[in-house]
Specification:
Elements: H1 12-31, E1 35-36, E2 42-44, H2 45-51, H3 57-62, E3 65-67, E4 73-76, H4 81-90, E5 101-110, E6 122-131, H5 136-152, E7 158-164, H6 168-182, H7 191-199, H8 214-217, H9 228-243, E8 249-250, E9 262-270, E10 280-286, H10 290-293, E11 301-307, H11 308-317, E12 330-335, H12 337-352, E13 357-359, H13 366-375, E14 380-385, H14 386-390, E15 393-398, E16 404-408, H15 412-420
Parallel strand pairs: 1-5, 7-8, 12-13, 12-14
Antiparallel strand pairs: 2-4, 3-4, 5-6, 6-11, 7-9, 9-10, 10-11, 14-15, 15-16
Length: about 425
């Protein structure tokens, strides 16, 4: 039996890396005063149809949708924003006196697409959503948080690209210009783009198949269709980023693939050699109006989704070593039936007092137990035989130096805490 296509096992040797990255990001979110939210693994299908948009590839091609025993249509979560917004509306977080509501999440997503390096059918994502403020300074803060996560993990080959999709009026005017531009060459475009001309012409600019078509280079720019309000908003976002010394490029063709985006859109890419053809690490933007689509009051929002698989790939591409060789604090070697029995008690008591320790459970001889301690890279080996037990002592060997000393059993906890915890218990 094998794992389904597009999924992978995260084994213990790799899980440490995930834990390190997630812990680092959680601490950054705490510093920025963002709170964690956890939503169900599946939602009513309508959440994504209305929230993400019927014309998107996610809804049309990539969702894992099924009927439950009550004949209700449910969908495994393909992205986080619609799910978090649904939770925001259902739980009336818009009524919280502390606004805006700043949220972050670690979620597993599910998308049926062709698996490739760093892009799986079951993927892991870190994301941020801020709901309740129309201030462009929030846009800059969200981008700053994403950049900080990458930089504090050690990444240097980064590129931030931003654009404005404008407000509803700007988008409608731009939409008409795109329809007029692409209609004469409609038959030369791929099948998906031919459909997008009527349903979602902005998505044509994001097409990988037609990216080299001459009409792409001559397509009108959204920046030429921004009204005064949208232009002013975008200028403020750029000003705030410059104040934070965050480098960026403006790309008029950056549209993002989801219907709910407006005003600020951004992507962060890796420029590391050997990272791969798909360089995007993070994508996000503002989505004013999404809460209304999901039955809530008009509440402005902005957020991003960061693929953790792609983050780990970027760290590897830049040769960033952030996990030291795993080391076990202590390992007990027991010799004799009475000592073996006492070792169970000692291991339990040390763990209860904050000491990391393990023992042999394979019935190995003494020499093999020491080999196991070496494989675990144990700092200290506790040696207990029936003779030591009779004298109420235990031998403790520091493996790096070979230094060994006898310790009274009733002083063992204090001794190990001083050695490993600086004298502090759990």
């Amino acid at each position: 039996m094998k794992a389904p296509r597009g999924t992978t096992d995260i084994l213990p040797k790799d899980a440490k890396k995930w834990q390190y990255v997630e812990d680092k990001i959680r601490k950054i979110c705490d510093r920025y005063h963002y709170k964690e939210i956890r939503t169900p693994l599946f939602e009513h299908t309508e959440v994504f149809q209305r929230g993400v948009g019927d014309s998107t590839d996610i809804v049309q091609k990539e969702m894992y949708t099924f009927k439950d025993r009550g004949n209700r249509s449910l969908t495994l979560r393909p992205e986080g924003t619609a799910a978090v917004t649904r939770a925001f509306v259902q739980n009336k977080l818009y009524g919280d006196p502390n606004q805006p509501v700043k949220l972050y999440y670690f979620m597993q997503m599910f998308r049926y697409e062709r698996p490739q390096q760093g892009r799986m059918r079951q993927l892991n994502q870190f994301g941020v959503e801020v709901l309740g403020s129309p201030d462009p300074a929030v846009d800059a803060e969200v981008i700053d948080l994403a950049m900080t996560c990458y930089q504090e993990l050690g990444l240097k080959s980064l590129k931030l690209v931003i654009n404005s999709l404008g407000d509803q009026e700007s988008r409608l005017n731009y939409r008409k210009a795109l329809v007029d531009h692409f209609t004469p060459v409609k038959e030369e475009l791929c099948e998906d783009c031919q459909l997008r001309i009527d349903s979602n012409p902005l998505r044509i600019l994001d097409c990988k198949k037609d990216m080299n078509h001459p009409s792409m280079k001559s397509a009108p720019s959204i920046l030429d269709f921004l009204n005064n309000e949208s232009r002013t908003y975008f200028e403020k976002v750029k000003d705030y980023l410059e104040m934070m010394n965050i480098d960026f490029e403006v790309d008029p063709n950056l549209v993002r693939g989801l219907d709910y985006y407006n005003h600020t859109a951004f992507e962060i890419m890796s420029e590391a050699k050997g990272f791969g053809a798909i360089t995007t690490l993070t994508g996000g933007g503002r989505y004013n109006g999404l809460t209304e689509e999901l039955g809530g009051p008009d509440t402005p929002g902005i957020g991003f989704g960061m693929g953790l698989e792609r983050l780990l790939m970027a760290l590897e591409a830049e040769n960033i070593e952030f996990i030291k060789e795993e080391q076990l604090d202590s390992f007990i070697v027991a010799v004799g039936d009475k000592a073996e029995k006492e070792a169970i008690k000692i291991v339990h008591e040390l763990r209860q007092h904050g000491i990391q320790i393990d023992k042999d459970y394979q019935g190995r001889k003494v020499k093999a137990q020491f080999k196991a301690a070496n494989r675990y890279n144990a700092r200290f080996v506790l040696i207990l035989g029936d003779d030591e037990l009779e004298k109420d002592i235990i031998n403790i060997r520091e493996m790096e130096t070979g230094h060994q000393e006898e310790v009274k059993l009733d002083k063992l906890i204090d001794y190990m805490q001083n050695k490993l915890l600086g004298g502090h218990g759990k």
